[in-house]
Amino acid sequence: MTTLQSRPAPPTAIRPRVVARTGLYALLAANAVIVAVLFADAGFGSNALILIGRLAGLYGALVMAFQLLLVARLPWLDRRIGMDRLTSWHRWTGFTVLWTLLAHLVFITFGYAQLSSLDPVDQLVDLAETTEGVLRAIVAFALIVTVGAVSARWARRRLAYETWHFIHLYTYLAVLLAFSHQVAAGTTFTASTAARAYWYTVWGTALGAVLVGRLVLPLWRNLRHRLRVTAVVAESDTVVSVYVTGRDLDRLPAAAGQFFLWRFLTPGRWWQANPFSLSAAPDGRQLRLTVKTAGEGTAALRRIEPGTRVFAEGPYGAFTTLHRTRPDSLLIAGGVGITPIRALLEDIEGHAVLLYRVTAERDAVLYEELSELAAAKGAQLHLITGPADPDLLAPRELARLVPDIGDRDVFVCGPPGMTAAVLRHLRDMGVPKRQIHFERFSLAG
After folding, report:
1. Does residue 258 contact residue 314 with C-beta atoms inside 8 Å?
2. Which CATH architecture has domain 16-214?
3. DSSP string of 235-262?
4. In the chain, where are the structural domains located?
5. CATH architecture of 325-438
6. Using alpha carbons only, what angle is made at residue 338 by residues 333 and 344, rounded to the nearest 5 degrees?
C-alpha cells in the first residue's frame, strides 16, 4: 500500500490547550489577588470568625462566577479545552463553591453569636429577620446544596438528563440571590466605589458569557443557517445516518471530530438535545451524523422525515486536528466511536493508521467507505474483531500493529471501558501525554 509523504509537524512551542488552560488559571489567580486587596482595603474588624466568614464568602462568590464562565460554551475556550474537560472542572469548582459558602455561613453565624451571646441557631434566625439580604443568601445556599446533591455521582446516575438539567437551572436563581445578598449586606462590596465596580464587572462578565454562549450564539447561528434534514440512511439494523443541510454552511465554524447538540423539531422531540458527533468532515454543503440505536430517542431518528427543521447547538469539542503535535497519526476507534474518527481520517494530513475495534465484522459501521477513504488517503486500516477478553489493543498488540506509535499523535474514541484501557496502555508504552487526544462526547454533567 502506498503512503502519503509525511508533512512537517505543526508548531508545538505553544499548544492551544496549554494557552487556554494557563489563561484560565491566570485569570482566576489575578482575581483572587484583587479580592484579597479589596478585602484588606475594607478593614478587618475585631472578630476573627466574622473576618474568616467574610473572606470565605468573597472567594465563594468569585469561584461561582468562574464556574459560570466554564460552562458558558464560549467557542474559543471550547475548541482548545473541550466541553468534557470544562464541565468536569465546573463540577469540581461547584463543590468548592459549596464548601466556601458553607464556611461563610458557619463562621459569620458563630462570629455574630459571640458578639450577641445568642446560640448559633437563634443568631442565624435573627440575621435572617433583621439584616437585608441574609434570607436571600440562605435560600441561595439551600439551592446550591440541592444542586450539589443531585450532581453527586450516585444521584446523577439515577436521574434522567432532563430531570438533572431542570434542577441544575436553579443554580442561576441561586447566583442572582447570592449577588443581591452581596449588594445588600456585603461589607467589601459597600466599602468603596472600586469594589462595587469590580464585583459588578465580575458578575456582569460571567452572566454575559453564559447569555452569549448558551443563548445568543446558538439562536443567531440557527437563524442564519436554517438547518433541515435532507436524508435519513440506514447503515445497518441498528445504525442510521442523518444528513443535514442549510444556508451558508461554509461559514459554520465546524471541524472534523466535533459534535453538536441536536434537536429535531418534531412533536415530542423538540425539547430533547442529543450530543452526536459529525461522521464526515464538514464540506460547506451538508453535515452528517451517524447514530447507533441506544434507546427510544435514537431509534426514532429512523422515522424523521426529510425537510424536518433542526436546531443545533455547537459545534463543540477539542477532538480536532488543532491539537496535533506530530506529522503522523494513529486513530483508534471502538464501535460507534468510529464516527468522529472517520471524520478525522478524512481531514487529517500526513500518514495515518486506523485501528477499528468491534466484536464482529457486522458491527463495523461505515466500513466500506472507511476502506475507500483509507485507500485514497494512503492510510493503513486494521479491522480488529473479537470479544472484549482478551484485550486485542493491549501494549504488545499496539506495538505490533504500529511499531512507531511513540512518534505519532494518537486519537482515541470508543466505549468508556475501551477508551480507559487504551489510554492506560498508551501511558504504559511511554507515549507522551501531549500526543494523546480523547474526548467524552456527552452533555454537561
Report:
1. yes
2. Up-down Bundle (1.20)
3. -SSSEEEEEEE-SSGGGS---TT-EEEE
4. 16-214, 226-316, 325-438
5. 3-Layer(aba) Sandwich (3.40)
6. 95
Residues near 350 by beta carbon (within 8 Å), at least 6 away in sequence: 4, 6, 7, 326, 327, 328, 329
CB 24 within 8 A of CB 68: no
Order across the sheet with 274-277: list the strands: 274-277, 259-264, 310-316
Coil vs helix vs strand at 313: strand
As a whole number of angstroms, the distance between CA 199 and CA 188 comes to 10
CATH 3.40.50.1400 holds for 226-316: no
DSSP bridge partners of 241? 233, 290
Beta-bridged to residue 130, according to DSSP, are none
pLDDT at 441: 58
380-407 tens-digit pLDDT: 999 999 988 888 999 999 999 999 999 9
Q: Which long-range contacts (CB under 8 A, 24 or more apart) does 244-248 make?
A: 244/286, 244/287, 244/288, 244/289, 244/310, 244/312, 245/285, 245/286, 245/287, 248/224
The pLDDT of 120-146, averaged and rounded, is 89
Q: Are 256 and 315 in contact (CB under 8 A)?
A: no
User: Quick one: cell of 406?
Assistant: 511513540
